[in-house]
Amino acid sequence: MNKPERIPESATEEFIVGGVRMPQPFRIRRLGHFGVNVADPEKSKDFYCRLLGFRISDPLDFGPRLSEEQRKSCGPTQGYFTRHGTDHHSFVFFPKGAYACLNPHSLKPSGTVNQITWQCGSLQEVSDAFDWFSKRGRPIRRAGRDLPGSNWHFYPPDPDGHTNELYYGIEQIGWDGYSKPRDMYGVRYTKPPQLPHKSEYAEVMQATADGIPIEKGLRAHDMGGEEKYDVGGIFLARPFKIQKIGPVRLFAENMDAMVSFYRDDLGFAITEEVKYKGHTCVFLRANTEHHSMALYPLKLREELGLRADTTLLSFGLQLGSYQQLKDAVAFLKSNGVTIKYLPPELFPGIDYCAFAIDPDGFAFQLYYYMEQVGWDGKPRPARSRPKIDNAKWPEAVERWSDTFLGEPFLGPLG
After folding, report:
1. Statement: residue 158 has pLDDT above 90
2. Which of 287, 283, 309, 285 has the alpha carbon at shortest distance from 298?
3. DSSP secondary-structure letter at 390?
4. What is the DSSP string of 312-334?
5. Helix, strand, coil % (nearest 5) of the chain?
6. What are the DSSP calls for 264-294, one per residue?
7. How far is CA 77 from the centre of its chain?
8. Do 146 and 21 touch, CB atoms closer than 8 A?
9. Which pLDDT tens digit goes with each residue over 3-12?
10. Per-residue pLDDT for 201 more than 80?
C-alpha cells in the first residue's frame, strides 16, 4: 500500500497528496450530502419530495437494530435517502426517535443534524485522513463503507457535536433510475479497507457473475404529479429544479473551536468574516464557491426567530436561475409553506434568497447565485456587491462576471 510521503517543514507536518504538497493528507472537494432528523419522515416526505423535488433512492428501516422495548417507544423507524441528481443521495432524513436510540449524541441540539458529508478525491485520501485523525487523538464515531450508497467513509464530529463525514465516491444512479439491489451489499466494512481495493466496476461484474439480479434495485419516482411547468424548455412537476446543495449554516456554541476544526482539521479556507450587531460570523469554503460552511454565534438564533432547539441555521438549495428562485417562492407559498426573509448581511456571496421552513421548523435557503473565488483567494469587496431589499425583488437582475458559474448540474433536469 502506497502511503503519502510525509515532508516535515520547520515545525509543520506536510503531506504529498496526488503529487501536491498539502497541510492535510486529503483535500475536500465539495459538500456531498447532508441530513436532518425529523419527527415523522412520512410527513416530511411530502415537503422534501413532492414540493422540493428530491427523489427517494432507498429507504432505511432502523427497526431491526432496535430492541423490542425501544421499538415500542421510539416512534417511526423508517428514514429515507434522497437525491436531486445522479448521486445516490444528496439529502437524507431519518426518524429522530429511532436514530436517538442508536446514537445518543443526537439528543443534543447539534444532533438534529445527522450528517454533514464532504467528498475527497480518492479512497487513498479517506484512508490517510482516517489514520491522521486517529493518530492525533481526534474522535471518530464510525468508519467503513455506507450502504445504501456504497461510499467509503469515516465520521469525525466537530467540537459542538455535529457529525461530519469524509468520503470517497458514491453510487451513481443513471437514466433508468435504479439503485443497487440489497443483494449486492455483501461485506460490511467497519474501517477503511486494505489498499488498493477493487474498483466498483469489478464489484458489479462480480455480482453479475454470482447471479445477482443487478436490475432489481429501487426505482425512484417523482412525487410531484403532473409535469406542467416550463423550466428552461423542459416540462417539470414544479417550476424549479435543485441544481446544487449547500451551503450549511450552523450556530456555534464555541466559535473559536469550531472555526479551528473546519479550518485546521478539515482544511477549509476562511473567505470572509462579517460583523453583525456585534457578532462575528465566519464563512469558509472548500472549493471555489464563496462558502460551503458558515458559522454564526449561538446568540443570534433567538434574534433571527429560528427554531430554538437546533444548531442548524439553514441548509442551502441552489436553483438554476433567478426566475426559478422567484417561481419557487411563489409555488411553495401557494402550497402553504412558510417563507422567511433574513438579513442579507448574514449571507455574503449570495444576493437574493428566501428560506422555506419545513414541517419540523428547519430552514432551507433557496438561492440561485453564489460568488466564486478565483486563484488569488479573494472574495468580491463588500462595497461592490448589490444592495438587497427583501421587500422589493426586481423582475430581473444584473449579470456578474461569475453569474451561472461554479459547479454545474450534470444530466437532464428531469
Report:
1. yes
2. 309
3. T
4. EEEEEEEES-HHHHHHHHHHHHH
5. 25, 30, 45
6. IIS-PEEEEEEEETTEEEEEEESSSBS-SEE
7. 22
8. no
9. 555 444 334 6
10. no
